[in-house]
Amino acid sequence: MSEKTKTPSKWGKYLTLVIFTVFSLFLLIGGTWLVVLGGSPYYLASGIVLALVGFGWAKDRLWALWLYTIWLIFTIFWALWETGTDFWNLAPRFDVWFLLGFWLLAPVSNRALSKLAGVSPAKYTLLGGILAMFALLGWSIWHDPQEINGTLTRQQPAQAQPIAGVNPEDWIAYGRTQEGSRYSPLTQINSANVGKLKVAWVYDVGDARTPEDSGESTYEVTPLKIGDYLYICTTHQMLDKIDAATGTRVWRFNPQLPPTRLYQHQTCRGVSYWDQATTAQVNPESAKYQAENGGLTEQEKLGAQTCPAKVFLPTNDGRLFAINAQTGLPCENFGTDGYIDLKRKMPYSAPGRYI
């Protein structure tokens, strides 16, 4: 009977030592790096605390429980000071602490320590700290400091104003205007006749998901309409120019995106359009900047001549293409062979992400 009571006690406290040592190593290494970079010393100090708690716990020392409790309570005040009541910032600062705290409260973690005199105040204090964390997280969900508490008017929105240099029937940007107004000045389709619309044509992009794609492969494009044509991008970032009247493809540009499951998302929400002829009207700030800085450079002038209207296409692998809106070919004077590598000089680069 005596041997049976000792076994779970030793098993629990040595498992606690292993768990706390592993977490401590992560925090010591990462925390040291963060301090070297000029960041908060909190994580380095937390690594030291966890190492001490794990050691003390294995030695049946009551001070280990008090040390953890005090640091958990300190963490609450530190997190509030650093992030405020933002749930998404508080949660990653609390989660590990209350999980480890619950483990320390479990008798199996150290039966010998649970029987020591004076352990109850420490346990109740720790439980209070954990409950305070939960209460604070719950409160922060309903009191988000970044929440936008706005109201929507019941009045009809003001009629969209014409854009200088842009035909009313065109949709030249993701939100139609650079401000993202999303309103069209056209009045032919309205609430009285929208229910009578019929399908004029259907366009099949022919770009299906493959086994090599990311789990989140979607089709979310907002087409641009310039003149008589639509410009869309597909799931694999192929760029199509389509006749708006017939739905017939005029050309397709394929950036040859390397297949990989490492992309977080496999999608393309839209492209951007730029026309040298309407820059001064559509984007007066750009024209003003050019005028104040001596106009276009020789390379820019050449690019404006050979590729006066461009469609900009981003890709998942960190490339930004400029495509001639007329021919569907890369603009040779843009970057290298028509694209810019956005990963260039990025210190941390991997498929699907770069920092």
List its traits.
355 residues, alpha+beta, 2 domains, four-stranded antiparallel sheet, 12% strand, PQQ
Q: Can you walk me through this structure?
A:
By secondary structure, the chain is of the alpha+beta class. The protein is built from nine helices and ten strands. Strands 1-2-3-4 form a four-stranded antiparallel β-sheet, with no helix packed on it. A four-stranded antiparallel β-sheet has the order 5-6-7-8, with no helix packed on it. It has a two-stranded antiparallel sheet with strand order 9-10. Helix 3 (62-83) packs parallel to helix 6. Residues 171-354 form the Pyrrolo-quinoline quinone repeat domain. This is Pyrrolo-quinoline quinone repeat domain-containing protein. The chain crosses the membrane at residues 12-36, 42-58, 65-81, 96-113, 125-142. Its cofactor is pyrroloquinoline quinone.
Brief overview, please?
The protein has 355 residues and is of the alpha+beta class.
